[in-house]
Amino acid sequence: MTQGPPRPTQPPEKALADLLGLAARARGLVHGTDMTRKAVREGEVRRVVLAGDASQTQAQKILPLLQARGVPFHVCLSREALGSAIGRGPVSAVGITNDSFAKRAAVLAAALSSPQG
Questions:
Q1: According to the model, what pLDDT value does residue 10 have?
Q2: What's the whole-model pTM score?
Q3: Half-sphere exposure for 14 (CA within 13 Å, toward CB)
């Protein structure tokens, strides 16, 4: 079996944004702080991406819950970039509910920031 030509590598920001967009189309994530918090409480979220420029109020709403529930999270990208990636306006948090998307997002987000939680 032959391999095709090597795929050009994308910057991690672009690759993560593309992955989140795919996950959104596949209904493998929830968006927004309130929806993410609800899904975390229900045990549906595997990993969270929190915008680096999220307001302190939004971060205080979700970070203690993530730490208490042991949900891994990454702080990276901007609110604008997160929202744009999933076809929405600015978003402070995205909760990934699909295991495969969560694993790949962990690898890509780790290239941008250190994992939290």
A1: 79
A2: 0.86
A3: 4
